[in-house]
Amino acid sequence: MKHAVLGTGMVGQAIAGKLVAKGHQARMGAREARNEKAAVWVKQAGKNASHGSYADAAAFGEVVWLCTKGDGSLDALRAAGAANLEGKLLVDISNPLDFSKGMPPSLFVSNTDSLGEQIQRAFPEAKVVKTLNTLTCSLMVDPAQLAGGDHHAFMSGNDAGAKQQATAILKGDFGWREVIDLGDLSTARGTESLLPLWVRLYGVFGNASFNFKIVR
Amino acid sequence: MKHAVLGTGMVGQAIAGKLVAKGHQARMGAREARNEKAAVWVKQAGKNASHGSYADAAAFGEVVWLCTKGDGSLDALRAAGAANLEGKLLVDISNPLDFSKGMPPSLFVSNTDSLGEQIQRAFPEAKVVKTLNTLTCSLMVDPAQLAGGDHHAFMSGNDAGAKQQATAILKGDFGWREVIDLGDLSTARGTESLLPLWVRLYGVFGNASFNFKIVR
């Protein structure tokens, strides 16, 4: 399957790398078509990897992964172009972290709204699914690294079929044992609100190799 | 030891009941000294149980447990009286849930502040420790009910001694296996922000018998 991965940072590299490793084609998108980091990634990732502008990537992908920093999410999607997102699963991994007042970050949207909902409102024809935004990127694509995968990913979205499609990739390609469907996209308020706790836990443990498990 | 439990609802009854069962003395405080629910509780809880006004309870307790609804927390503490809180461990279990716009609730303070911090600012001589606000009350005092206790309580507070004292009660009397000290009271922003997710998980599972575990 053809995937667009918007963002060239650690999250984008983890997602695109895993997709290619699983036999998918992935095109990494950046603000500039000739992004250096994306070019380096393509060389190392092999023949199923390519790169280009946000619009190049989004036009290529049947599924679009939003792996930018949260404060760049809407700009990246505008550059990708609404027509290139129409009808597609748009997996939103970004978080509305606000570092402008120093560490630890606060959230630039929270409580009564979420970044996931802002994105869905801005691109009503995309099928936004919020997931994987609650853990570090190496675990996103290899949850078995930690406790044999005995922990949880969450999922929020308004389109049942898009959530099924995303769950199939998370389980089939990334190895997730359980993905908890929280409901519609307004439930992304809950998972985006995990970040303030995540950041503090990171401070306590001194590393990012942890995740939430819902024990019941 | 003598404990004040402010609040006569399910949380107050769970905390006060467990304290008495463990051989402590607990006085339940309410807005009115002759609160009916508190009187019923005392009859059933036995000789180490008593009740009175918020001030009666707080004057009695060497430790004060804040078990009111979040929007009543500051009023209850004002009624208890700053002098009755001075120098004492004040365990804040309350959550800033705002039901005024219907279900699910939002938070009336979040992101850049927390109810725990508001309480500490209003009562600077109390030693506020935020804990147990992230799970249902039956599990607060009997975590072994769920997965043999293999899940977590969190703790936030500015006073190391007060956190040690609270941890000793949680482990020694309530049976918690692990309490994660997140740091100073500003980390309560993180645990109070878990509530929007908790509420959605409650909706998915249809019951409150679950908790967060940090897998690492």
Descriptive account of the structure:
Two copies of one chain form a homodimer. Chain A is of the alpha/beta class and 216 residues long. Chain A has one domain: NAD(P)-binding Rossmann-like Domain (Rossmann fold, 3-Layer(aba) Sandwich), CATH 3.40.50. Chain A has nine helices and eleven strands. An eight-stranded mixed beta sheet of chain A has the order 3-2-1-4-5-8-9-10, with helices on both faces. Chain A has a two-stranded antiparallel sheet with strand order 6-7. At the A-B interface, strand 7, strand 10, helix 8, helix 9 and strand 11 of A face strand 7, strand 10, helix 9, helix 10 and strand 11 of B.
Poorly predicted regions of chain A are none
CATH-assigned homologous superfamily of chain A: NAD(P)-binding Rossmann-like Domain
CATH architecture label of chain A: 3-Layer(aba) Sandwich
- Quickly give the structural class of chain A: alpha/beta
Question: How many strands, which pairing sense, and closed or not: the largest β-sheet of chain A?
Answer: 8 strands, mixed
Radius of gyration of chain A: 16 Å
Q: Oligomeric form of this entry?
A: homodimer
Number of domains of chain A: 1
> Helical element count of chain A?
9
Termini separation of chain A: 36 Å
Mean pLDDT of chain A: 98
CATH class term of chain A:
Alpha Beta
Query: What percentage of residues of chain A falls in helices of 4 or more residues?
Result: 25-40%
Number of strands of chain A: 11
